[in-house]
Structure formats: structure tokens, C-alpha cells
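@channel sequence for tomorrow's demo:
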Amino acid sequence: MAGDAATPGWWPAQVGPGRAIDTTRRRVLALDWLGADGSLDAPIDPADQADALVAVLDRLGIARLDAFVGASYGAMVGLQFAARHGARLQRLVAISGAHRPHPYASAWRALQRQVVALGRAEGNVSHALSLARQWAMLSYRTPEEFARRFDAPADCASGQVRTAAEDYLAHCGRRYAARWCSTAFLRLSESIDLQRVDPAGITVPTTVVAVAEDRLVPLADLQALVEGLGGPARLRVLRSEFGHDAFLKEDTAIARVLRESLGDVA
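C-alpha cells (generated this afternoon):
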């Protein structure tokens, strides 16, 4: 997670010396998800990821974790870990991830997968991945952010109309397509929609972080999660025009929640 001199870490705003997850006080274990390299072309769900993490802990001789901190898909895996291996966990912080996918979000992802499948069939996988990512960006962010950043008239040149947000979306798509393969995209996208966990089976102390503007993981779903948890639980609600991506963009607010949730962990 911390990365090296040439490669920035996944969450450098929160993980590192003196950060909310302080690497001078805690050992931090992070690993790639099953299927992230595209070598596993089979259904994978968040429970599989939790079990894989347990296998890694066993191999390292780690009996119990002080905390599991996960955001988005990581929060889904964290919920599965707490439900399946609660005796090995002191507490959970789940940010913008629920016990089940919302049907609207699942429909959105299903269409993205169809775009990628069409690209594979037509021999244009890179473009298809780019389009799927651009579509995903619209679900990660909010109309309010786009209104602030891209409120400009569409441009008509050479008989074609281009809107103000298109260059930004195309950049996001190209960057994603250069780093990911279609198999990894499809299988991990499916994995989100396979998430199912009974909140009542989670008894470890849990902090759930919701973003009121999140369109992928609605506040109502996270309220239901907290109400159904079988152990001590608390809900922290943030407001952010960045929606689902708030855990990557709202550094100060997320750090505050993490410090509050982890402050009494030895």
C-alpha cells in the first residue's frame, strides 16, 4: 500500500508515517485482489477474497488483525471477513460498501460489462474498456461536481458536437484501459454484484462510513446495514460532491473518521 519511490501507493493520503493509518505504529498488510491480474477467468465473490486473505494471514503466522479498513469493494470484502472470520478481527471500518449491491448500481455495471463483451467480440477491447470506465466515472461522481467543472456550452466543430466533459472522461478511460485487461474488469465487476452477507452475522465492532451523495451505495442501504449488524455499530455520514469517490478525494474528512475509529487500537 505504501508503494516505492517510483510508484505511489494506493491510498497515500491515509496510509504512511503520521497518517491516519500510521505505519510507524501499525503494520499494514495490503494485497492485490484475486483476479486483479486477469489470470483467473472464473466467478469470484467478496467471500472468496476474504478467505484468500485468511490464507495469507495463516502463511504469515498472523492470528488476529487489529482492524480491517476497506473502501468500496474493500468494504464488501471487510464485511465478509468479519462475518466469516470474526474471531480473527478486532474491528472493522467499512467505507462506501454494503452487504448487498443496489439493483440500480448492478444494472449500471451490467451495461458496462456488455460494452466490454462487445468490444472483445469486435476486436476493440481497449476502446471498450475506455468506454466502460467513462460510464463508471459518471456513477462514481455526482451531477453537482460535473455542473461545477463542466458548465460550458457544447462545441460544434467540423460537423461534430463535443461536450465540455468529454476530454476529461476520455482521459480517464485511456488511463484505465492502459492498466487493466478485460478479464479482470469483467470478473471483478461481477464480483461486486455477487456480494451477499447477513449483517446479523457480523458481531465485531463496526464503523460504517456513508456519503449522502453516493449513487452507487446509497445512504439508505448503509443505514439498513448498520441497523442489522449483530454487534456494536456506528454510522458516520459525510457530504461530498465527489459521491462514491469521496474516500479518495475528501482526505481530511476520511482521515478524521479513521483516526476516530482506530485511535484506541493498540
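heads up for whoever presents: The domain at 15-100+195-262 is CATH 3.40.50.1820 (Rossmann fold).
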